[in-house]
Amino acid sequence: MASNQNPISAIDMLTSALRSNIIPNQEYLLQGSVIDSSAEVLHNRLRGLCDAAETGPETFHDHEMCFSLKASTPGGTPQQQQSFLLRVRRALDHPEYPWQLRYLGQPELGDKNQPTVLRSCIDIACTPNVVEFLSELGCRIEFEYVLKGYLFRKGRMKVTMSKIFRMGQAKSPDSLEPMTGSYLVELSLLAPSGQDAVADEIKVFAEQLRPLVHLEKIDYRRLQSYT
Predict the structure, then answer these.
(1) CA-CA distance, 101 to 68, in Å (whole number)?
(2) CA–CA separation, 157 and 118 (whole Å)
(3) Coiled-coil regions in this chain (predicted)?
(4) What is the DSSP string of the chain?
(5) Exposure pattern of 111-131 as b/e (b: 16+ CB <10 Å)?
(6) How does pLDDT run across 17-62, given as a tens digit for each residue?
């Protein structure tokens, strides 16, 4: 016998899950860097502190593209329009893996007592035609690069050591040039909204990595003022 109730759509289910705070859509983040000559020492330190010490960290070799879409504001001028940023990442070492579409919100620094940066973060597995789909939506590619590095896990926390490469004029992942003489180090944790206590957990772990690397809250607004 058919039910008289309307089927629940995927959007309804997602909205309900977000309101119930069961989806990890908030990223707590600290960042820093370590020069190439000291990277091995930090690598060994992380291997000893993190999970799966015997097997070692995961490795990654990814190609990431950043797209922007101008969000129109009623009554606003083109200069006042805000850019909506989306990132697309694919695993070059595992082409069989799904591509990843990521939305990152504006970083919130909070007051000086807040231990980490906080930003909205939503990851979606997708197919390779996502680039064509975003282009048809009006998104414009702003920049792209290749990352090679290591992924460590400590409970719910994630630590990445990433070497960032500039793509050559041929735009081929095979023609790479290191952008800096250092590794980008990121300590992050995804959690549902309202679990701000995890920021203290991140701060405690970051202290254990000093003085090899100083992980801090990065104020992106100050960086933009220098560009």
Answers:
(1) 13
(2) 14
(3) none
(4) ----SPPPPHHHHHHHHHHTT-S--EEEEEEEEEEHHHHHHHHHHHHHHSS-TTT--EEEEEEEEEEEEEEP-TT--GGGPEEEEEEEEEESS-TTSPEEEEEE---B--STT--SEEEEEEEEEE-TTHHHHHHHHT-EEEEEEEEEEEEEEETTEEEEEEEEEEE-TT--TTSEEESSSEEEEEEEEEE-TT-TTHHHHHHHHHHTTTTT---B---HHHHHHT-
(5) eeebbbbbbebbbeebeeebb
(6) 555 555 678 999 999 999 999 999 999 999 999 998 788 899 999 9
Domain spans in the chain, listed from the N-terminal domain onward = 25-72+79-223
Contacts of 165 (CB under 8 A, 6+ apart): 145, 146, 147, 148, 176, 177, 178, 179
The domain defined by 25-72+79-223 carries CATH number 2.40.320.10: yes
- 10 Å CB burial of residue 24 (0-12, 13-18, 19+) is middle
Q: What is the pLDDT of residues 173-184, one digit of tens each?
A: 667 899 999 999
Structure tokens belonging to residue 153: 């896990």
Phi, psi angle pair for 66, to nearest 5°: -110, 125
- Provide the whole-model pTM: 0.82
